[in-house]
Amino acid sequence: MTAFLRQCLAGLRVLLVLTVLTGLVYPAAVYAVGRTMPDRADGSMIEVDGQVVGSRLIGQPFDGDEWFHPRPSVAGDGYDPLASGASNLGPENADLLSTVEQRRAEVAELEEVDPAEVPPDALTASGSGLDPHISPAYAALQVGRVSQARGLDEPTVRGLVSEATTERELGVLGEPRVNVLELNAALTMLD
Fold first, then answer.
1. Gap between the Cα atoms of 88 and 81, Å rounded
2. Backbone phi, then psi, for 48, in 5-degree steps?
3. How many domains, in total, are found in the chain?
4. Among residues 113, 103, 111, which one has the least CA distance to residue 73?
């Protein structure tokens, strides 16, 4: 057998082994691990009355006084997962500064507070433009408006905010946050 033929057969054996490992064994292992946590593997969907209303992982726009509002998004037309991305405007950019001040005035007027009380996440979009979370401070700012629009007492709505608040991961990573879709889904359960 010539050296060339031996090298070709060795290459073919490597190709077959790698094809089986990376084309069959690895995908099967990933699928099996995914099935151990079906909620996450299937997109972390939220259901209300048996209907899927969205994913815990992607924000959505909510308009109207009866809903908690998410942070602004620059992902396409609202929270478009196909247009994920930041605005790429720097902190000294005149357009960004103008937009932030406009948002500050709008939120302050809507929530009937002093503009200085508006938290930063009500003014700026996340890096992906798809963040489903707001800060507990922004959620607390909206409690009065939402409770009045829904005819609920404020302690009930504050309780929902508290239940929807996720603390820091491992006690040190990230910031406390409120998932807007989960919070609004909890509101619909009170109807």
1. 17
2. -130, 120
3. 2
4. 103
The whole model's pTM is what?
Answer: 0.76
- Which of 43, 53, 182, 58 lies closest to 129, judged by CA? 58
Question: In one letter, which amino acid is 140?
Answer: A
Q: Is 94 left (phi over 0), alpha (psi -120 to 50) or beta?
A: alpha
> In the predicted model, is pLDDT for residue 55 greater than 90?
no
Q: What is the pLDDT of residue 38?
A: 67
| Domain shared by 146 and 158, yes or no | yes
> What is the pLDDT confidence band of residue 131, given thresholds at 50, 70 and 90?
confident
Q: Which domain holds residue 162?
A: 45-189
Going from the C-alpha of 60 to that of each of 13, 68, 106, 180, the distances in angstroms are 50, 11, 19, 8
If asked whether residues 31 and 125 sit together in one domain, one would say no
Q: Are residues 30 and 57 in the same domain?
A: no
Structure tokens at 106: 């709008």
Q: Could you tell me if 15 and 79 lie in one domain? A: no
Q: Tell me which residue of 153, 27, 14, 128 sits closest to 71, measured CA to CA.
A: 128
Percentage of the chain exceeding pLDDT 70: 95
Higher pLDDT, 54 or 6: 6
